[in-house]
Amino acid sequence: EDEDIAALTRPDSSVAVGVAGLSGSSSERSFFGQYNGLRRNDTYLLLDLDYIKRDDATGTWTTLQGRDLGLDTREVQFGQQKQGDWKYSLEYNEMVRHDPRTINTSLIGAGSTSPLVSRLATVGSGDELNLNLKRKNVTVSVEKWLSKSLQFEASFKNEDKNGARLFGNGFNCPSGAAPAPTCTTAATGINQWALLMLPEPINSTTKQFDARLNYSNDKLLLSGGYYGSFYNNEYTSMSATVDGNLNNPLGAPMGGAGLSSGLRSILQLPIALPPDNQAHQVFLSGNYAFTPTTRANFKYAYSHASQTDNYSSFGNAPNGRTNLGGSIDTSLYQFGLTSRPMPKLSLLANVRYEDRNDKTPIAYYNIEGTKIFTNGNYSPKRLNGKLEATYQLPAGYRATLGADYESLDRSSFVPTNSVAGLSGLRQKTEESGYRMELRRSMSETLTGAVGYQSSNRSGSGWLKPNSELGVTETSNSAIYSRTAIFPMSMVDRQRDKLKASADWAATEQLSVQFMIEWGEDKFSAPTTKGLNSSHMAFYGMDLAYILSDAWKLTGYWSRGDQTMHVDHSTGYMAALRNLSDTYGIGVKGKPTSRLDIGADLTLTDDKNEYNQGLDASASAANKTLLATSGGLPDVTFRQFTVKMFGKYALQKNSAVRLDLIHQHTKMNEWTWGYGGTPFAYSDNTSVYLKPNQNVTYVGATYIVALP
Amino acid sequence: ADAPATAGAKPPAKDLVLKGDAKCTTCHDEADEPRLLHIGKTKHGTVADGRTPSCTNCHGESDKHTNNPEKLKARPATDRNFSKGTTTPVEARNESCISCHRKDSKRSHWEGSAHQRADVACTSCHQLHTAKDKVADKRTQPEVCFTCHKEQRAQVSKPSHHPVLEGKVACSDCHNAHGSVGPKLVKRDSVVETCYTCHMEKRGPFVHSHEPVNEDCGNCHNPHGTVAESLLKVRAPFLCHQCHTPHGGQLGQLQGQLPTVPTATSSGKSGINYTQARGCMNCHTQVHGSNNPSATNPTPQFNLR
Asked: Are B205 and A570 inside 8 Å of each other by CB?
């Protein structure tokens, strides 16, 4: 009997070993195998390990756990701890992303800093290129209770990221930034522009170090420490070499003398890669109990971030500057108070203020004729406040009333900074709102809640970009021009949200959840261009049904419906809509004392509509295009997945498990091609994704308990 | 489990797992749900740690439940009950846990957090009487969170997503469900700082920055999943046209769709080149900022290279 009880109270250790097989080719598995390490091969070793031991005399735990050890998503963790005294752990984790797209290209040196571009004779005649990103990280953590009230915690995480991602380069000669005479001499217009696909090399290391000392007594928790984060990129820039000619917009080789030397040299200029950067933060946070029913929490943090990556791989940096000298100091203050002054009333107040101070020196980075622009300088101050009261009303009702406030002061605009593609800027925006919620336990089996939230954002006067440098504050009417677009994060906004939910235990066996959400944003700017409204609705239900002690059924359905109206300044009025249904059914059962089985079916059915309309000022070409083509087709995505498992206990300490997964994905979209015509870069590089994918996975494992 | 406690001259019952558990284990066994003895497999079952609780520390002395003095047909529940349909107030249930776990710095901002205000009980998410607490394992954690967060459950199934369903990224990698200083219970003090823990290359500062990137990654991305690539809320050019005055006046167009084919002199700023492939990012590749210092034409100020 003692042994039986020990088995029920002792931590379990086990090892699971097996093999998995998958159907289809790698391209058939590009969605299924994007992250799970099952993309490239047809068979895999399955190996999981759980070694968990506790020394009952001292309360010391030893754990060694391994997950997916046969895949390139493997994880291993080893740790020991004496509960309430000390703890350490070491963790190794691999994560991989296989880009679902396959590239067809003649590019040489893809993923390096010096790729060589040469035009393919025809689209699709190149080599297949699959891009991967791999993260490998190691985390070391330690913890020590120095006394009953003092605890030290520290952790260090190092992550190496290697691989390449889809990237590119493009240039259009008539740009205002185009230097004469390199582009303008192509008077025939033949050599005006080119687009290149160039994978971005991502070989970088991220380090994070966190150390804190925690003090606690009956009333106070105080936690102070340091957080440092460091990013190091192996490369600073990349430069392509373009060999030979490229295509013109017709997809044929550029005529005349081919690719002009001017455009070629622009395409070969260095492209910046993310610079090394680092940040140090010291902080103090915690909470304090004034009384058992009145508590405060707080945080103060001071951060210094810098970026001084050397410019040496670039030419033409401003005189005297060898790096940006990026330096940003940020202070964060937060204070919150919760109180229950009487049994039925709860109160909450919270304020948070963040002050970012950009101390980066200003230098002349852009010189375009008579215009001399500088780097930007961004020092926003953000203030958030919240007040809330909740009162227990008669008849089981509970009401909550709250008010929220946010202001964002973007500070003064640097007069020599550039304003790229914006019609106006705002220094300050303010948003205030209120919300209310009513909850009720209507009976022992039914609870429900309904909430409403409304907020309004407005801001200071608009700053109009000058024709040369800088901005000038002006009235809304003065800034008006028919084609002006104002940033969606700065324009006035009225936001309303409604939410309701119910949880119903219909019978002992059946429980049902209902929920519905509705939201609307209305934007108002000096013009109607840009983003002017968005709507969302989300509703659905979940069911859980207990058939018997051995069988349980679950199911859900939800629908999301989002629309957005974004108007182009002169081209279109877009009415975008995303309609998404998600279904799930699950069953779990134990038909015999030795057998556990289960199945989950999920279906995602998603449709995006890209409706474009035209106003009276539309060009004749646009009118013809829309009338002839009907605009952009819908994008649809449908994915059906069934997962089944069966686990059979051979003996008390061993079992076999069989897993079966089948996934069908169907996608109809035009990002990289339309109507059988692939989108082709100027060197005839194309990108492909198999639109219909069927994958079947079968895995069998033998599980044995370790003594 | 509902059998009355045995009375009589039997020798005192022996504790099986926790100190003083005989009060409960004389009646309750593994046939009950939750399986009582499995507490022994957990950290709460580490008896050598003097801080670990007994049954009554969490459930209360529960004399009415133990003795049923009024001989009720349905035995009264324990003083603090955690099962479905319990009448024990959430605050009282949570106090069972917080009284010990208050010292944890990761829970310093529980009071006033969205979950606390929404009456979420610790046991709404955590299972205590099992060696495998679903929410503590990143492979099973999402299904616990999705019990309430159903919109996110739908979003993680979209083609562009973080590997949540694949078990490589957990909700708790970005959120601290026990309260935080940032919005939406993000783990660090702001959205951007949380994203930088994995995407630090976006932090800069850059020579040419893109201010909405510094303000909130959520301006352009939905981290829970989208149909557009790179977790973009909307695909280019529509995403970019929410703020920017586009050059040219063309409709979004697709290669092969035009009733009039491009000419050899068509502009690269055409409806095709900012709609297909990487959209506006075909040329404006450095949307997160460029550290290219070149001060001569063509300057990289429009985040071109």
From this structure: no
B46 to A305, A705, B150: CA distances (angstroms): 43, 21, 36
Q: Determine contact, residues A570/A530, Cβ cutoff 8 Å.
A: no
A258: left (phi over 0), alpha (psi -120 to 50) or beta: left
State the Cα–Cα distance between residues A636 and B220, nearest whole angstrom.
21
Compute the mean pLDDT over every residue in chain B, rounded to the nearest whole number.
Answer: 89
Is A202 buried (19+), middle (13-18) or exposed (0-12) by CB count in 10 A? Answer: buried
**The two three-digit tokens of residue A167, written as one number:** 């990237």
- Which pLDDT score, from 0 to 100, does residue B4 have? 47
pLDDT of residue A487: 93
Report the half-sphere exposure of A638 (CA within 13 A, side-chain side). 8
Query: What token pair was written down for A477?
Result: 């009417």
Give the mean pLDDT of chain A.
93
**Tokens, residue B255:** 């290669």
The complex's ipTM works out to 0.95
Residues of A in Cβ contact (< 8 Å) with B102: 216, 221
CB contact under 8 A, A566 and B212: no
Could you write out the three-class secondary structure of A342-353?
A: ECCEEEEEEEEE
Contact criterion met (CB below 8 Å) for A541 and A514: yes
Q: What is the number of CB-based contacts under 8 A between chain A and chain B?
A: 462
pLDDT digits (tens, 9 = 90+) for A503-514: 998 898 999 999
Chain B residue closest to A196 (CA)? B282
Q: Tell me the per-residue pLDDT of A285-326, one tens digit each, with 9 for 90 and over.
A: 999 999 999 999 999 999 999 999 999 999 889 988 999 999
Q: Are A431 and A405 in contact (CB under 8 A)?
A: yes
Q: Which amino acid is at A446?
A: L
Residues ≥6 apart with Cβ < 8 Å to A148: none
Best of A39, A139, A172, A483 to substitute, by most chain B Cβ atoms within 10 angstroms, is A172
Question: Is the CB of A172 less than 8 angstroms away from the CB of B268?
Answer: yes
Neighbours of A343 (CB within 10 A): 8
Residue type (1 letter), A537: A
CB contact under 8 A, B159 and A580: no
B163 vs A contacts (CB less than 8 Å): 34-36, 95, 97
The backbone torsions φ and ψ at residue A2, rounded to the nearest 5 degrees and listed phi first, read -60, -40
**Interchain contact A286–B (C-beta under 8 A):** yes
Average pLDDT over every residue of A18-45 = 94
CA distance A55 to A104: 58
Contact between chains at A179 and B298 (C-beta distance less than 8 A): yes
Residues in CB range of A570: below 8 A, 6 or more apart? A483, A617, A618, A619, B249
Who contacts A592 (Cβ-Cβ below 8 Å, separation ≥6)?
none
Is the pTM value of this prediction over 0.80?
yes
For residues B189 and A384, what is the distance between their CA atoms, to the nearest angstrom? Answer: 13
Give the 3-state secondary structure of residue A233: strand
C-alpha dist (Å) from residue B242 to A248, A534, A707: 30, 11, 62
Q: Identify the helix (H) or strand (E) that includes residue B98.
A: helix B90-101
| DSSP string covering B196-258 | HTT-GGG----SB--HHHHH-GGGTB-TT-BSSGGGBSS-TTTTGGGT---SS-PPP--TTT-
Whether the link from the prior residue into B4 is cis, omega within 30° of 0, is: no
Q: CA nearest A161: which of A96, A98, A110? A: A96
Q: What distance in Å separates the CA atoms of residue A644 and residue A35, rounded to the nearest whole number?
A: 20
Mean pLDDT value across residues A175-202: 69
Query: Which is higher by pLDDT, B165 or A372?
Result: B165
* A259 CB-near residues (< 8 Å, 6+ apart): A191, A194, A242, A244, A245, A246
